[in-house]
UniProtKB/TrEMBL annotation:
<protein>
    <submittedName>
        <fullName>Uncharacterized protein</fullName>
    </submittedName>
</protein>
């Protein structure tokens, strides 16, 4: 896992989060990173599953257009 700070991941950090201890901010940063990783995987699975409804001969072209 890359060690990006919470501010790097979110762009701007709400003031209440800045008040947290560094250890807690790191934990929150890891949690955000993991949540985004899981979300990305779920979106990829959904995209692949949606192609089941496209005729087989069109799938490569659709993948290219959609970026899957």
């Amino acid at each position: 896992m890359s060690e990006r700070t919470l501010a790097d991941q979110l762009g701007s950090v709400p003031g209440g989060i800045e008040a947290l201890a560094d250890e807690h901010k790191r934990d929150l940063g890891r949690a955000v990173h993991e949540a985004r990783r899981r979300q990305s995987a779920a979106l990829a699975r959904a995209g692949d599953e949606s192609l089941r409804y496209v005729p087989a001969l069109l799938r490569p072209a659709i993948r290219k257009v959609v970026g899957l």
